[in-house]
């Protein structure tokens, strides 16, 4: 059983089917609920979005990775094609509804074509599609599958501001998968504040060993402005001696090192 | 004349008054409009939010700094105290409305106290307050000043999930201010993709000179997943020889260096 952001037709469902085509799905209202379902052991895995190629990080997911003991056991990359979907025609549309990420990804399209429409956030793109099926005034920005699921017409297709649009999902679960030869490891580090060069030293442990960082992202610690955690993804598996050696050295240099997991890379 | 996110009572208005108590203000509908007003020379400065201590970056602002020729000439830090404001009483509330950042900053409060309310995004906290003045069903999450401006009662105060909540605003304008001895410089760098250690080398130029980085933030280039720009703030003024020397060396190491400006540090 896999916990995902619902309802049916969501991009998370696409991600889940890409990762495991046969598993049963549990549709959750929001990312927090999908994580809670895993923590309460009501599902075996949860799949949640972590970054989008246009909009950047899904910050709630990053924050939940810091707050809870979660293990990343996989990743899935899904191509996002947004459709404008409604029961009504273009002239009927008074409200455009989607997940905030969907709205951001189509900001220019909305401004150009629906300048006067009210723009309203929903908890997921597929929920927006479901709500759009209840009124001709509403158009949803969501996947083609959502439109089919809720009987909506296609008013426009591929409406994202930039055509290449991908979302990376992480699979969270319990057990670290064995090395496959093409793996990634995700960590969070907290440097001491106000020590110039601290991040430089940490990155040096990886650069000196030729370890490739695929991502580095800062998030506020939520204590004071200017105090950050760094989320780092790197190529390699924690069972590789070079990776574990680098992480041991990093640990001695930082105030906190949290290892989120090692898992097969999607690309 | 300063362009800010309106309407009256917004946190941006607080920032503008903190920066210059007497300047005339122009209230804009959204961040993009505040930037446009400056580009069209309809205002002398615009003040826009760039990061919050709980929620992190205002990504639209970061993206606009990359897209347009804008000069950062100042920064302002404003303490954020969110209030739950309405014409109705707690039991009347069916809709909770705020800017998405305000909603995120009060996520736990909403989940605990208004589990069944519809949560709706508005373009600004003060616009949410204005809309709340039109219906007893709606409560806004906004500043105390917004509530006073639109005649709303206070249902709860200091409702953000973590009490220490600050937003950093940047002032964008035309001319780089002279060094004050306590300045910051903001830059964007684009490294070549897939060259391990490239970020390490860039940070080395600063670390080797003892230059303090106050912030480092990655944003997607919007081309492919895993391709990032880095936004870096550092202590010092571009007219300092050490800073300009470091930036010259950085420029020779990266695919793109954009200098956003040097300006007096707020703290």
TrEMBL record, chains A, B:
Keyword Lyase: yes
Top-level taxon of the source organism: Archaea
This protein's GO CC annotations: cytoplasm
Domain Prephenate dehydratase: 1-174
Record-annotated ACT domain positions: 187-264
Enzyme class: lyase
Enzyme Commission number, as recorded: 4.2.1.51
Gene Ontology process terms (BP): L-phenylalanine biosynthetic process
UniProt entry keywords in alphabetical sequence: Amino-acid biosynthesis, Aromatic amino acid biosynthesis, Lyase, Phenylalanine biosynthesis
Pathway linked to the protein: Amino-acid biosynthesis; L-phenylalanine biosynthesis; phenylpyruvate from prephenate: step 1/1
Catalytic activity as recorded in UniProt: prephenate + H(+) = 3-phenylpyruvate + CO2 + H2O
Full protein name: prephenate dehydratase
Organism encoding this protein: Candidatus Methanoperedens nitratireducens
Taxon lineage: Archaea, Methanobacteriati, Methanobacteriota, Stenosarchaea group, Methanomicrobia
